[in-house]
Design goal:
496 residues, alpha/beta, Aldehyde Dehydrogenase, Chain A, domain 1, Aldehyde Dehydrogenase, Chain A, domain 2, 7-stranded mixed β-sheet
């Protein structure tokens, strides 16, 4: 532990990398500075990985997979390490509660719940060691005895974003580990703290050397991880633009990849739904993490005759939102994560005005805050779905209300996007909700709320990504399927 600007930094080795089971010195003196978005002051400095550091991390993971014990342990044996990591994360609850707000602007009250949520996910994946069909008997068309065997894909490069780093780390690391993979975790320069907590927790759990390696790097060095032929799979969460680049690099060498990318998710408000209730739901979620959520419901589609009433209801709620310090219990929305992120959001607000949308609430910076990267929650009405704010991911607290002629037009508008990550249907009729959900081209469709369940599966259609994370579906991407056809029955299998 160290102290800076009167704040205790809950990390032991921020000046090093976790490689090969030990904290190693970096190859250079380069550092990455993390700025607290609420006060624009330095919060943390960590070592910045260069080419030699990334190569060392990949080599450690390759060595651990090819020659170490980890892939050769039983799934039940690996599960015990996952349970130990879960217990360790619960002990770091307040550390994560301090780090996440100071890196990304999330409310402290929300950040404090992170450890319990991630620990439960690790425990759930440990439980799959007993229930997942890693080996299945099948009837072959030739030979006497057939098996479908699901084996670890190999060395995994896990690249996580800055907005909800620990969530993403968990749903990449936990399934990879129970599968038997070894991992290089590449933290985002804006939010490396959670990755360091994970490394410390894994070390305390006694994870064998090289099974998990942690570095922080910029885009250029991160690309070396994607290109390295010693890495069998890349799992990435981030922007669609970066995902396209990663997919193309993986395609050059036919490396496996899972991509969880951007979104422009629609909330479809049907004609039987109370508008005040719908407005409260969509406005409340828009303030979570200051709208820096890929699956946020940012396009609100409602019939034209109810449009103005919905816009007014959302605008009224937004005008009362308390924006400020994430550690103040009265705060309802914190800052954006970085100055360039606020510039991006303000640029889209300007585009919305220029394109003729109706600015109903927000649109500026809170007048009572002279420091920090804050922006007011903002809602536009009469948005053209083909406009910039109707089509492009803003990644901030900006909602676009889009009028539709009728229910079928609303569904068509919701689907008229390159994305397909999340959606929701607002109606009091569960049968209508299910019918509309089946028509929406989206990886998740909720009912009367923002929904995303990593216990089931999370991922997108179209340019929102490839593959799924969470639950049983999130384990498959870390496995290769092997068909084994034998001329006799092996030991351990009785007669049919």
């Amino acid at each position: 532990m160290s102290e800076f600007n009167g704040i205790t930094i809950p990390l032991r080795h921020a000046d090093r990398f976790f490689i090969g089971g030990d904290w190693v010195r970096p190859s250079s003196d380069a550092v990455i500075k993390v700025i607290d978005p609420a006060n624009e002051e330095l919060f943390l400095s960590v070592a910045e990985a260069k080419e030699a550091d990334m190569a060392r991390a990949v080599g450690a993971a390759r060595q651990a997979f090819d020659h170490g014990p980890w892939p050769r342990l039983s799934h039940a044996e690996r599960a015990e390490y996952l349970r130990a990591i879960a217990a360790g994360l619960r002990e770091r609850a307040e550390d994560l509660g301090q780090i996440w707000p100071r890196e990304s602007g999330v409310l402290h009250a929300v950040a404090q719940t992170s450890a319990a949520r991630e620990a439960k996910a690790f425990e759930n994946y440990a439980g799959l060691a007993d229930t997942f069909p890693f080996e299945e008997r099948v009837e072959p068309t030739a030979g006497e005895f057939g098996l479908i065997v699901r084996e670890p894909v190999g060395v995994v490069g896990a690249i996580v974003p800055w907005n909800a780093a620990m969530d993403q780390i968990t749903h990449k690391i936990a399934p990879a580990l129970v599968a038997g993979c070894t991992v290089i975790l590449k933290a985002a320069p804006q939010a490396p703290g959670e990755a360091y907590v994970m490394a410390e927790t894994a070390q305390a759990a006694g994870l064998p050397p090289g099974v998990l390696n942690v570095v922080t790097a910029d885009r250029e060095v991160s690309e070396l991880l994607v290109r390295d032929p010693r890495v069998d799979k890349i799992t990435f969460t981030g922007s669609t633009a970066a995902g396209r680049r990663i997919a193309s690099l993986c395609g050059e060498r036919v490396a496996r990849c899972t991509l969880e990318l951007g979104g422009k998710s629609a909330a479809v408000i049907l004609d039987d739904m109370d508008l005040a209730t719908a407005a409260g739901t969509v406005a409340g979620m828009a303030c979570f993490l200051s709208g820096q959520v890929c699956s946020a419901l940012t396009r609100i589609v409602v019939t034209r005759d109810r449009h103005d009433e919905l816009v007014d209801a959302v605008a009224d709620i937004f005008s009362q939102v308390r924006v400020g310090n994430p550690f103040d219990p009265q705060t309802q929305m914190g800052p954006l994560a970085a100055s360039h992120q606020r510039d991006r959001v303000e640029g889209y607000i300007a585009k919305g005005v220029a394109d003729g949308a109706t600015l109903a609430a927000g649109g500026g910076r809170p007048k009572h805050l002279d420091r920090g990267w804050f922006v007011e929650p903002t809602v536009f009405g009469n948005v053209d779905n083909s406009s910039a704010i109707g089509q492009e991911e803003i990644f901030g607290p900006v909602l676009s209300v889009i009028p539709a002629a009728d229910e079928q037009d609303a569904i068509a508008i919701a689907n008229d996007t390159i994305y397909g990550l999340n959606a929701s249907v607002f109606t009091n009729d569960v049968e209508r909700a299910r019918d509309v959900a089946r028509q929406l081209r989206s990886g998740t469709v909720g009912h009367n709320a923002f929904r995303s369940d990593f216990g089931m599966a999370f991922g997108g259609f179209k340019q929102s990504g490839i593959g799924r994370e969470g639950g049983r579906e999130g384990l498959f991407p870390f496995l290769e399927t092997k068909s084994v056809i034998l001329e006799g029955r092996p030991a351990g299998y009785g007669s049919l």
